[in-house]
Structures
1.
Amino acid sequence: MAKQFLGKEVVAAVNSRIMADVAALKEKGVTPTLGIVRVGERGDDLSYERGAVKRCETLGVAYEKFLLPADCTQEELMAVIDQVNKNDAIHGVLIFRPLPKHLDEAAVIKALDPEKDVDGITDGSMVGVFAGTNQGFPPCTPQACMEILDYYNVDCTGKKAVVVGRSLVVGKPAAMMLIKKNATVTVCHTRTVDMPSVVKEADIVIVAAGRAGVVDASYVREGQIVIDVGINVNAEGKLCGDVDYASVEPIVEAITPVPGGVGSVTTSVLIGHVVEAAKRKFA
C-alpha cells in the first residue's frame, strides 16, 4: 500500500509560514491584500473564489473583489486591470479565466503588472520560472506540487522525473521547477510514443494530462512517487484525478489522492504569493 501524500498536512505547514509573515507585515502597518477580478458567474470560478476568500480570512489576508457582468466590454475590464495595477493597497491580483469569448484574454494578461501576478499568468512570471529568478510568481498548481515534494522530504537531485502534460499552466513550469531541484526531466504529451514505458522509468511522476484516469497500472512500477494534478468528475459524479488511483496506489511508493492532494495546497500557495508580494514591496 502506497504512502498518501496528503494535502492537509502540507497546507498546515504552508499556512504556519504564511501566518508568521502576515504577523510581521502587520507589525509594520501592512495588511497583505488580494484583488479578485471575476467576469460573470461561472460555477468553478465561484467555487475557487469561495476557497480563496476563506483561506484569506483564515490567514489574516485582506481581499477586495472587482466583479464585472459576463457581457462587460473589453474597455471596462481593462479599466479594472489598470485600477488594480495602480492601487498600492492591493499586493496581488487573481483574474479568473477563461474569460468570456468576446474578450481579448491575451491583452488582459499582458496588461497585468507581473509584480502583482500571484497566479503566474503573465509573460513576466513565465520568464521568472524559466530563468529561475524571482520575477513575478510561478503558477500556483506546479508550485503546490513542489511544496508537497519538499514537505515529504523528496530529494529530487539526480532523480528521473516525468511530467505528463505540457501546458503553460502546469506541465512546462513544473518541468522547469523540477530542473531547478536538479532532477532530470522528461515531458510527455499526446504525441509521445509508448508513454507507459517512458513514465515507468521515472522516479517522480507529475500527472497533469487533463483527462481522468489516463495513467493506470501499466504506467507505473514499485518505488515511484506520483503527484496527481488532475481534477475531473467521473461517471458517478465523484471527483477523480488523471491517475487511476485504484490500480496505481497498490504499486507505487507514494501518491497524492484526489480530492485531498494538490488542489488543497494550491489555494494556500496563492495566498502565500500575495504575502510574498507585500514583503517584496516593503522589503
2.
Amino acid sequence: MIQKMHFQGAIILILLLASCSSDSLPVSYASAGKQELPAIKKTKIKASSRIEKYMSPLLANGFDFPVGNKNDNGPYKGRYGLDRQGWTITCGHCGKEKYGIHTGEVWDAIESNTSDLNEHVFAIAKGIVHKIEIGENKMGLGIMLRHVYLENGHFDTIYSVYKHLNPQNVGTDLKIGDTINRGQSIGSIGNFKEQIPMYLHIELRRSSIAYKSIYFKTDTLSEKYKKEHFMEVSDFITFRRKVTHPATAKKLMIAIKKTYKFYLIRDGKLVDTLEMALGQNPNYHKIRQGDNRTPEGEYKITQKAPGPFPGDIGPYFGERWIRINYPNWYDAENGFKNKIIDQKAKDRIQNAILADQKPPKDTNLGGGIGIHGWSGEWDPKGHRNITWGCISINNPDLVVLYNKIEIGDKIIISE
C-alpha cells in the first residue's frame, strides 16, 4: 500500500514538473475670483529602496464610504448623537444632465434634503491633502485627497474629491500636504448661505486630471472622457475594502526582480532577505507561454512539494517546489485584451481564481510558475537569469523558506 502511494505521488510530481517545463520550452499600463490654495506637486512616497516603498505606512490599506456608516449606506449614529436612517445615492454616474456629464456620485440623507447639514464627511482611505478650494457661485468648500495603494502588486494612485462642504465648519484645519487617516473627518456637509441643496458630491479621479480645479467645468465633457479619467465611486470602494498592505501584513513575500531580492514579511516587519534567480528573459511581465519571463503581480501559493523530483529536469527544481496561481485575474484580463487568449480561456482562468483554485496552465498564457531550488547552487554574484520563468532560491535558503510559508500565503513579484 505504501509503495502504491509513493508511485502515485511520483506520477503527480511528474505532471507538476511537466507543467513548468512545458511552459518553459522556447517558442521563439484656477480661476479669477476663486479662493484657492495652490496645488502641491505630485506627492511621492519617499523611500531609498523599492522594498521601503512597499513598507511605507502612507500606503492605503483599504477604502471606506465617505459618510454615515463606513461599511455601506445603512443606519448610523449622526454627528449630534441621533440615530439616522442612512444615505442614498440620488445621482450616480448618470450621464448627460443639465450641467453636463455627472462625474461622481451625490450622497444625500434619506430623511430629507436638509437633514444632512453639518454631518461629517470622512476620508475614504489614508491619503494626503492635495487641494483645497472654495467653489464659484457659492458651491462651498472642495477638498481633494491623494491615495497611493497596491493594485495587483503595483503602485497605483487615485484622487478622492469631496464637494459642497461647509466652508465655516472644516473642523480639522486641513492644510495642503497634511496626512489624513482612513475614516478621519475632513469636514461636514453644508452649503454657502443656503444657495444650493445640501449633499455630498464625491468623485474619484485618475492621476491624468489631478491637476484640474476641484470645480472645473463639466458641461463639455464626453462620456468617453469620463470613463477615461474618472472611476465609478461605489464600485471602486466596494471591491477595495481591503487591499494588500505590507506594513501591517501578517505574512507576505515580496520578490523584486530589479535587485534579485526576495523578502519575507511577518507582522509588518522584514524577517528574511534572500537572493534569487529569475527567468532567462528577466525584463517585463510574463505574457505568454514560452517567453521565459518571470511574471509580475500579486499571487497566492497554491502548492508545496518536497524533492527530490524525477525526470530529466527534476534536478533543476532542487529540494523544494512552491507553485503560485499564475495566471491571475489581471493576467487573464490583459491576455484577452491583447488577443493572446480567447473569451473561453479568460473565463476559465478567472473562474478558477474566484473559486480560489489553481488556474489552468494549458492556455496561451502558460502556467506552472513557482519557486524552486536548483541543481547545485548558482553564484549570487554571477549570472542569475537561468530559469524558464520561475523564481529560483538556492536550496539551503529555500528549505528554510518552505517551512515558514503555507498554501494561501500571498506573494508580490515586482519589476
